[in-house]
Amino acid sequence: MIKFNNIVESIPILARTLLIILFGYAASSKFLDFSNFQIQLGQSPILTAYAGWVSWGGIPIVELLIVAFLSFPKYVYHAFFASYSLMIMFTTYIIIILNFSDFIPCSCGGVLEKLSWTEHMLLNVLFIAIAILGIVFTTNKNHKTKKLL
Q1: Which residues form the Methylamine utilisation protein MauE domain (predicted)?
Q2: Which pLDDT score is estimated for 148?
């Protein structure tokens, strides 16, 4: 029989795993097709002036840092917040670009660039929810530990 406590304890582990897969895949696909990633960022009406900085030090490096921090239990709580924040930024960018731009380049890599904008939004909302679950259940777990001590 599956115990409720086992399910609750598994939520942060599952959230970590899914976020590691997402950000690891996203960063590696950007690095593997880096010139295309830079060109697409340069075509963005919002990010044109910052395309070099965002492509070299911004997005893929931040994604890899989040993957690294998600890999260490000591930093996982903060990594969930970083994941949440980055996904909120991506979602905000999509909303702005869809509502205020005639030209909408996609700087996502790999299979993610094949998604429609609606699918991008749904995927982002899903991963925002996953990050929130990670935050909530990691917080609850830490509070239980502190109360027991």
Answers
A1: 11-136
A2: 44
Q: 130: closest CA among 88, 71, 73? A: 88
Name residues whose C-beta falls within 8 Å of residue 99's C-beta, 6 or more positions apart in sequence.
none
Q: How far apart are CA 106 and CA 52, in angstroms?
A: 16
Instruction: Summarize pLDDT for 85-114 with one digit per residue, the tens.
Output: 999 998 998 898 888 877 776 667 677 778
Q: In whole angstroms, how far apart are CA 11 and each of 8, 21, 63, 138? A: 5, 15, 21, 9
- 109 phi-psi bin (left φ>0, alpha ψ -120 to 50, beta other): beta
Q: How many CB atoms lie within 10 A of CB 94?
A: 17
Q: Give which of 53, 75, 74 is closest to 65, Cα–Cα.
A: 75
Residue 49's φ and ψ, nearest 5 degrees, are -65, -25
**Percent of the chain that is helix, strand, coil (3-state, to 5):** 85, 0, 15
pLDDT-derived band of residue 124, with 50, 70 and 90 as boundaries?
Answer: very high
